[in-house]
Amino acid sequence: MYSKEELLEKVRPVEDPEIGFSIVDMGLIYELYQDEEGKVYVKMTLTTPMCPIGPSIGENVKKTLLEDPRIPEVNFEWTFSPPWDPKTMANDEVKWEMGIFS
User: Fold this and answer.
1) What is the CB-side half-sphere exposure of residue 98 using CA atoms within 13 A?
2) CA gyration radius for the chain?
3) Residue 46 and residue 78: Cα distance in Å, rounded?
4) Domain spans of the chain?
5) Cβ atoms of residues 58 and 76 within 8 Å
6) CA gap 93, 20 in Å, rounded
7) Strand pairing of 21-22 and 74-78?
8) What is the four-CA torsion angle of 28, 34, 40, 46, rounded to 10 degrees?
9) FRET label pair with 46: which of 25, 32, 70, 85, CA 20 to 30 Å apart?
């Protein structure tokens, strides 16, 4: 069974193509865990509920996780509560690149 940190590293290569940063570094993943049967549960958000590429980002997350033979299934949920806030959710590198200096 993978830890949350190990699962985050697996999906770190998935980027928001409009912004060009990892969804992990942007803080878009709210929950990520693997149960005892190996199924992975993902709860994440998008930069905006109207993001036109949201479905493709979700599919990339699922595809990336399912490449691992120790992950038989991925259950995925979108949430917009709380809304994404890069000032508090993104890592320092993303904030810097986005011009958020507080």
Assistant:
1) 20
2) 13
3) 8
4) 4-83
5) yes
6) 12
7) unpaired
8) -10
9) 70
Provide CATH code, domain 4-83: 3.30.300.130
CB 71 within 8 A of CB 38: yes
pTM (two decimals): 0.92
pLDDT digits (tens, 9 = 90+) for 48-102: 999 899 999 999 999 999 999 999 999 999 999 999 999 999 999 999 999 997 6
| Residue-wise burial string across 20-50, b where 16 or more C-beta atoms lie within 10 A, e elsewhere | ebbbbbbbbbeebebeeeeebebebbbbeee
Q: Which two tokens stand for residue 54?
A: 């949201």
